[in-house]
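Changelog note: in this version the structure field was regenerated for every chain. One regenerated record is shown below for reference.
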Amino acid sequence: MKILMFGRGVIATIYGWALERAGHDVEFYVRPGRAATFGDSVDLDLLDTRRRVWGQRVAEKWPVRYREALEPDHDFDLIVLSVSHHRLAEAAAFLAPRVGRATVLVFGNIWAEPPAAIGALPVDRIAWGFPQAGGGFGADGVLHVVLLPSVVFGTLGRPPTERERAVRQVFREAGLRLKERPDFRGWLWVHFVSDAGLHSQGLRRGSLSKLVGAKGDLREALLAGRELLPLLEARGLDLRRHRGGLLLFRAPAWLTARVFAWLTAHVALARMSLQAHSDPDAEEPREICRDTLAEARRLGIAVPRLEAAEPYFAREATTAEKHEFPLARTCPFAPPPAYEEIREQEAISRVRLPDGGWAWVVSRHEDVRTVLNDRRFSADRQHPDFPQLVKGAAAARRPDDERTLIEMDAPEHGPARKAVLGEFTVRRLDALRPRIQEIVDGRIDALLAGPQPGDLVESLSLPVPSLVICEMLGVPYADHGFFQEHTAKMFKQSTPPEERGAAMGAIQGYLTDLIAKKEENPPDDLLGRQIVKLREEGTYRRTALAGLGFLLLVAGHETTANMISLSTVAFLRNPEQLAMIKADPGKTLDAVEEMLRYFTIIDAAASRLCVEDTEVGGQLIRAGEGVLALGHSANRDPRAFEHPDELDIERGARHHVAFGFGPHQCLGQNLARMELQVVFDTLFRRIPTLELAVDVDELPFKDDANIYGLYRLPVTW
């Protein structure tokens, strides 16, 4: 059989040697340029226990063959993929389009769900196995290893396929006995936490080699592993199916530690198994401990011994981890300064949330769109693990709160969105344009009739979208002061959770009462039409419609109002850009798109919860982990936008993510575009001498709010 060992790590080298000795044709795939570094042979110091209980010592210089390219039309029958668990996603992504007709043996530690861990690799080409060997390269360049007489194979709850049986036969031919594990997923996880317990103590001492004959250290390692068993149960593992593998932890630690200490001190096989792991800088032991501890914290499992060892395996904090999100803008016209460094150096990295938890931050344009368009990332903000950017946000929710559109996942989301989508068609919005123009003209009249300086926020920015959305919904504009006051409380970061919850409840209660009054004789407004339509479909619920009304009312005025104010400031600071739309109103729509991209006033509103292990940008994100998709960072990504920090209304780029992306892309985006277009065309035509009444540095920007904008905008003319 023609076999390709993926990489030239310890396990690949040991078994490559054994398989070649059994008569198979073995090559190694290595990264371009690495073959010359490795040389054309490996110095082996190997204890081979396949035929002798105490092992046969083998010392030789073994010639090897490398290849630095792998095309899909290769003729390999078997590819042995044995890499560190934290490198598996990257290796699988590289290998997936290059599998050809080969079977891939995934041969090593896995902590994720196995099918998710292999990414896009074709499942029907996969065999699952685990080596029973170990070792490491010494300072002298010699590979010191132990090859045990057996190797572990398993399946995920089904009999082996023909391909899997063929792989097993290859290892039999190499003189290895096979151990079958029908619940291979569970076996892998038991082995992983066993490694975590052992490595946590080894790292405290410097390496596993320091544990040889060390009764006290081995006892601590066993106890650390025992503490991790509840973690396996929390992950859904039935420990009764793995009694044999857990006997080591169930037995009295004082006894097993004594036995292990004696074995490692007096039996060459046991001693070499630990001595071979002598590299104090090896990364895999640290990654095993980090990932185990992260999972324990996510599931709320106490693991005091592993936590006590954390200083020995914690990696240096990344740029993102040094900050608690959300980050504040230091310049009103730029994202937080750390965004660029995160995007360019640590595009997908962990960050600390206000409630003390962790989430992944996704910062590049392509990756943000991937997350927002993938159903494996949930929008369910009511889930207890959903990443919250406001401390106490979860406490502000009430158990009986209805999920709004932005909180729904498939299959619930599609029909709910479709039910209201007809209210935002181009045809219906075009019919609304004259009324929007009338509202804008009326508000500019009021501004011109008032004193100078005038406040553009009070006179124009806030009233225009508020009037439009109130008329669309059928909400009396006379009550705008009520819902604007409560909306401001909702979006201010410093608002206590109880007050935020009360503000949300007040608006929802207001809408529930309003809808109840409309039910007897539904009027021809959005809420009234929804009552009629949903009754006809037999799906009408007052509380659900109130939730929709809440979403549209709040989002429909707050976002557009802030965009009007910010864009006006940007135009006045960039008179050459303003001159373009004055000279050619046809450019206004492009200007609107650029303002949306440039400001991205709702930065991380597109937070998600991973519900299935998924790889994004080479990083494996596990089920139950939160994700912050940073829209402002994505919209300043130079991979997607040339000179992204420049304001250029002729850019013509509509692939920004200011309105989100995918199934949850903003329902009212075209309404917002129309309002902004009408405002800019009218404002600068009717008040050509408009200017700021104060310096930009004196403007009260909403640095303390979840939707960026201005509290006031003093202007003169």
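Spot check on this record: The radius of gyration is 31 Å. DSSP finds 29 helices and 22 strands in the chain.
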